[in-house]
Amino acid sequence: MNSYDVVVVGAGPAGMACATEASRAGLSTLVLDEQPRPGGQIYRDIEVSDPGRRALLGKDYGEGARIAEAFRASKAEYRSGAVVWNIDSEKRIDYSAGGRSHSVQAKSLVVATGAIERPTPMPGWTLPGVTTVGAVQILLKTSGIVFEDLVLVGSGPLLWLAATQMIAAGAPPKAIVETVPRSRYREAARHFAKALRGWRYLAKGFAMMRAVKKAGVPVHSDAADIAIEGEIAVTAVTFTSGGTRQRIETAHVALHQGVVPNQQITRLMNCKHRFDDSQRAFLPVVDESFETSIPGVYVAGDGAGIGGAKSAEMRGRLVAMRIAEKVGNRAGEAAKLRTELAKDAAVRPLLEALYAPAADVLAPADATMVCRCEEITAGQIREAVALGAPGPNQVKSFLRAGMGPCQGRMCGLAVSEIIAAAKGETPSTVDYYRIRPPLKPLLLSELAGLGAEEPREAAE
Amino acid sequence: MSSDALVLGGGLVGAATAYGLAREGLSVTVLDEGDVAFRASRGNFGLVWVQSKGDGYPDYAIWTRRSADLWPSLDAMLKEETGVSTAYEKPGGLHFCLSEEELENRKALLARLHNVHGAANYGARLVDRQEVREMMPEIGPDVVGGTYCEHDGHASPLYLLRALHDGIKRRGGRIVADARAETIARDGEGYAVKTPSGTYRAGRVVLAAGLGNKALGKEVGLDLNIAPLKGQILVTERTKPRLNMPTHVVRQTGEGSIMIGDSHEDVGFDVSSSSDVMATLAARAIRMFPFVKDLRIVRSWAALRIMSPDGYPIYQQSETHPGVFSVNCHSGVTLAGSHALALAPMIAKGALGEELAAFSARRFDAPAN
Amino acid sequence: MPQRIDGSGETVRFTFEGREVAARAGETLAAALIAAGETTTRDSVVSGAPRGPFCMMGVCYECLVEIDGVPNRQACMIVAEPGMTVNRQTADEVVA
User: What residues does the BFD-like [2Fe-2S]-binding domain cover (chain A) (predicted)?
Assistant: First the structure.
């Protein structure tokens, strides 16, 4: 089995920057990533998108080219199309690539698997034609695909970014249905002074809102009780806004309630997690160098708490510096990077307060489907709690919620929230699904062949 | 907080016993752990399995067979009372052999069991290469034969647990989560059990806390020599119905998933690294049923079986603390019928029956031979 | 209908439910299907209800299709190749 000083999982900004920095410090480094090309979701297809498309995606997207270029020029090994399906406590990593499973040994493991979108259970959210906002951006980045009737529903910076990108691409959204309650602005205002340190983000935010206004995109604010209609596919979105029930016909709806750390690997490894009230999500507990409760396991980027692409790049570099420092290799200067990182994070409390998830999504109606794979409703989850299920793992075994192929990624956070509310507790005490291998569904034939190709070396 | 009986542990063993006690008319309180408990129950493979149980231990074979015979009633009661189906089916079960040597060993085992229990009671018979294929057309070329037993079946361990919990509640029982028993003390005529969520009192106490029984037993004069044995299970994505009956290591669930596990009797199974064990289980399953190679594993489970030194259950009433009973075993699904409908009535009456004498912890006092 | 904003890239042809679909070289099956107006890729194995690509990043497993006879493959993670035979995954293929 091959062994590396550093194995990085994920080739987004954090993973690429970490690998570049680690190999610069003389550490043997391997990057494993599921996608065919580096960039992660934020810089998806950054190496191959044409200049015109890159221009309309904005300057921040273009930043990815610099990071990817440095990564490609580094000595780090890179395996694309590599799906990690198990990591044991000794940091042996099993992954699937090219139809076979392989194992590598890491001295230090860097989890750079970023974020996923928060589950957004609401009536009709499983209908074909409904996607996440991230999906809409991916379609634009990878294929230049736009929709003439796209309705964006939810809240968060990504919602506005997607809208401006669509406008730039000549296909403004049909409408934005924003779920931020009016009272939120007052609550968020107290974070404004501090956020001024991150004025560039604020300026970008205001510019996006201006662009939407200028393009004449209808914005329905303070929307609630959202339902997506349709029999076999989406036909309309309905909601209450400004005191009246409204209905917009469309075949394409994109949902967004912010992004949350992708916890699958850190949960699998039983790293300590905590519930962050401001981000309203579980975060792995990390130290100032992003090392988890398990020595030698680090989380770089959004996986350690949402900070955005710039922060992810800096955190990736910091992790590499820390690993190098520990083995006595010459590392880069971390102090300046930390200052920059703190400055970059100044805007987060404002964003987290303003764009906290909508109440409807945290507490869906009884009839709303929460687990998409096994079709389990919020009401069934509440019944299981009434039957005595103390948390998500018992709910899972009573109902099969979280047992489908997505392995709880699309429902986990929502299930923890619903159970917490039903018990009068917080997600912090209720906790989360226990995650077990394989991290992604794995062909039995491939599993059976594990180790056949690369005989494992005898223990030293 | 007082009731007739306290059951310490809300897994399959505790829940089945508690449900049975509630059926006997006792007021029951189940003191359960938190969300991460039930490891053995959640990792159960789901067989109601009679064949090959009790080699050299006829009482276990009889107790197991009795449970299998009680299962249809238990299933029907739970369905009627709770509306929850345990997905119980009794199409018989097959045990396969992948080599002539395995088959010879199996033959010898069968002969031993027949000599002790008699063929009629035991019900398993040898099936050859040809007959195995007629019974299960999906079987792979490496299978040289096996044994079939009409008393075997399977059920969903998870739905069984849910139905039992539901049944206990509907019969007025209480299930308290986050109430892992810490101490047991005499309290007047009965006992007081201290937990993080309060102290509970009852005249009868059933220790059904899995591996937790070891520490609890010490408090009531029971020296329970039990240890964990890790086992692993793989679960595939759903597929159309392919298997018409359960086998000792592969079965198809009501939802269509294929479950792959290590056999109940392979008690020496060594689990050192989970990916490698998963690979071994996968390779063996493919040899038995080649079609599974194209399915994807969506979950794997590692669970800890509760093993006594000889692998058989320990049922014991404390001599120093009368009214305190201890139940220690693996195979919580197979034995659910007996636990709910045979063991619980004995506990309700206050004494274990003669048929459980062989399962006393005292059998370990003298060196076995 | 979805539109493409630029004409870059070679065309790769595969079939979906017997119909020919044009993909750009290097893009995923799911992206090509959405561009072709095909938003339904499978039926739910529980209720049979129609489902389609949701996350486009390999997380939700809603875009499962049958590719060259092999079911349960993620259309959003698999790059379109010339001549692929892709079909909707119907519930009865998976479980009756």
Answer: 369-420
Which domains, and CATH codes, for chain A? 2-116+260-331 (3.50.50.60), 119-257 (3.50.50.60), 363-430 (1.10.10.1100)
Which amino acid does the sequence have at B266? D
Whole-number pLDDT of residue B68: 96
CA distance A37 to chain C (A): 10
Answer yes or no: is B85 within a domain: no
Domains of chain C: 11-94 (3.10.20.440)
Check whether residue B213 and residue B327 sit in a common domain.
Answer: yes
Judge contact between B253 and B46, C-beta under 8 A.
yes
C65 Cβ neighbours under 8 A, 6+ residues apart? C29, C41, C42, C71, C73, C75, C86, C87, C88, C89
Last residue of a domain, one of B264, B286, B307: B307
Q: pLDDT per residue over B39-50, tens digit each?
A: 667 778 999 999
Whole-number pLDDT of residue A459: 35
Pairwise CB contact (< 8 Å): C56 & A410? no
CA separation (Å) from A99 to A24, A87, A452, B263, C69?
Answer: 32, 19, 13, 29, 16
Inter-chain CB proximity B161 and A441 less than 8 Å: no
Using a 10 angstrom Cβ sphere, with 0-12 exposed, 13-18 middle and 19 or more buried, the burial of residue A162 is buried
Residue with tokens 């990878």: A142
Chain A residue with Cα closest to B301: A436
Q: Residue A452 pLDDT more than 90?
A: no
For chain C, say whether B244 makes contact (Cβ under 8 Å).
no
C-alpha span between A188 and B226 (Å, rounded) = 57
Angstroms from B235 CA to nearest CA on chain A? 10
How far apart, in whole angstroms, are the C-alpha atoms of residue B329 and residue B316? Answer: 12
Residues of the domain holding B125? 93-150
Q: Does C77 touch chain B (CB under 8 A)?
A: no
Contact state of C70 with B237 under an 8 Å Cβ cutoff: no
Residue B52 located in a structural domain: no
Decide: C29 and C50 in contact? Cβ < 8 Å.
no
Nearby residues of B200 by Cβ (< 8 Å), 6 or more positions away? B1, B2, B3, B6, B29, B31, B176, B179, B192, B193
Token readout for A69 is 């270029």
Provide the domain count of chain B.
Answer: 3
Residues B38 and A388: their CA atoms lie apart, in Å, by 13
Q: Which of B218, B225, B211 lies closest to B183, judged by CA?
A: B218
Q: How far apart are the first and last CA of chain B?
A: 46
**Are A27 and A323 a contacting pair, CB within 8 Å?**
yes
Q: How far apart are CA A16 and CA A6, in angstroms?
A: 12
The Cβ-side half-sphere exposure at A354, using a 13 Å CA radius, reads 18
Tell me, yes or no, whether B233 and B259 share the same domain. yes
DSSP 8-state secondary structure symbol assigned to residue A2: E
Distance of residue A452 Cα from the nearest chain B Cα, in angstroms: 10
B298 and B233 in one domain?
yes
Rounded Cα distance between A203 and A60, Å, is 13
Q: What percent of chain B has pLDDT over 90?
A: 75
Which amino acid is residue C31, in one-letter code? A
Backbone angles phi and psi of B102, in degrees to 5: -60, -40
- Report the C-alpha gap between A315 and A303 in whole angstroms: 11
CA distance A443 to A438: 10
- A454 touching B, CB under 8 A? no
Domain contains B76: no
- Tens-digit pLDDT profile for residues B211-227: 899 999 999 999 999 98
Q: Are residues B193 and B243 in the same domain?
A: no
When scoring B238, B243, B257 by the number of chain C Cβ atoms within 10 A, the one with the most, hence best to mutate, is B238
User: Looking at this predicted complex, what is its ipTM?
Assistant: 0.96
Q: Is residue B55 part of a domain?
A: no
